[in-house]
Each structure stands twice: as C-alpha cells, then as structure tokens.
Amino acid sequence: MITIVDSGGSNIASIKFMLERLGLKAEFSRDAEVIKKSSHVILPGVGSAAVAIGCLKKHGLFDVLRSLTQPVLGICLGMQLFFDFSEEGGVACLGLISGRVKKISKRDGLSIPHMGWNTVKLIKANPIMNNIADNSYVYFTHSYAVQVNEHTFAVTDYGEEFSAVIQYKNFFGTQFHPERSGEIGMTILKNFLRLQNDYLSSY
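The structure corresponding to this sequence follows.
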C-alpha cells in the first residue's frame, strides 16, 4: 500500500494522478496506523514549513514519521521537513538530518521563488535516480533550499548550488516535483516504488 501523507500541501492531487498513470493506487491519510503499515510513504508539500509541522503535530504524526523504516519520499517542502530547522517561519522540523533550510539568496537576474525547469547534476549514484541522465530537466517551485551536505546525491544551481536529491537511510527527498516533471519524474517515482526494505536494511 502506498500512502500520501496529508500534511496540508497543495500538490497532493497531482502526485496521486501521476501514480494512477502508473497503474498504482495511493491513499491520502493522516491515520498513524495506516501510514505505519504502508509499503511506501510519500510526504508532499507546497506551502509553509510551520503550517506543515503544525499539521503533523496536530494529527500525532510527528514522531510516527520519524520512526518509519519503510521507504519514505519527501517532495519539495516534504524533503525540507526532514532537516533540523527551517528559516521559513523559524520552525523546528523532524530532525532526521542535521542542517537548516534557508531562504534562497536573491541574485541579479534571478527571481524568487525559483519556479520552472532547471537541471539536476548527479554527484553520487542513488537508486531513485537510476536511468536518469546527468543534467536532466525537472520542475521546481520553492523559495527555500538545503545546502549541499553529506546526504546530497544531486544538486541544482540557481545562483548557487543547493541539494536537489538527498537520502538518509530510508528517507529520500527531491527538492523538485517529480509529479510535474514529465517522463523524468515518472521514472523517479517508479524507482522509488521499486525500493524494498531488504535494500534499505543493507544501506
């Protein structure tokens, strides 16, 4: 069973539609027991970190998400929530990965938010990026980002490099939106859904 965590994000429906195109069913849920029993969990989000964390705490999901051992995919804000702290609203996040989410620096000729198509540069092999060519174009929409760190597997440059794909144990994240990234995004979702716990236990 695939579960999309209902964290109040606005891109939930588009993720479900992409999975349906793959012939897969996914459930929206804020039920802790449903999430814990899922084979794969997707944490989406377009919006405020403070609102999303507040929603997770309100529904008793903060510690549940931290305890998951199956494959978990955070998308955009969902990925950012894996880190210690977000400058967006000045909120403590899930604390799975050490680091802060910071506002993208405004630079000449670049508008904030970073919105539209940009390339991802692969710096380390990662299973969710299998069969994805280096410098492939994917779709972004965000004003905050995570600096490159030891858990970064791909980067994107928008005036400066930031983490585009991360992994920590069973937690995977994309700063871009696979569900809005055409065939490239569909391949990434397929790769994620192929992950099994036996792979993760050996990581």
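The first strand starts at residue 2 and ends at 5.
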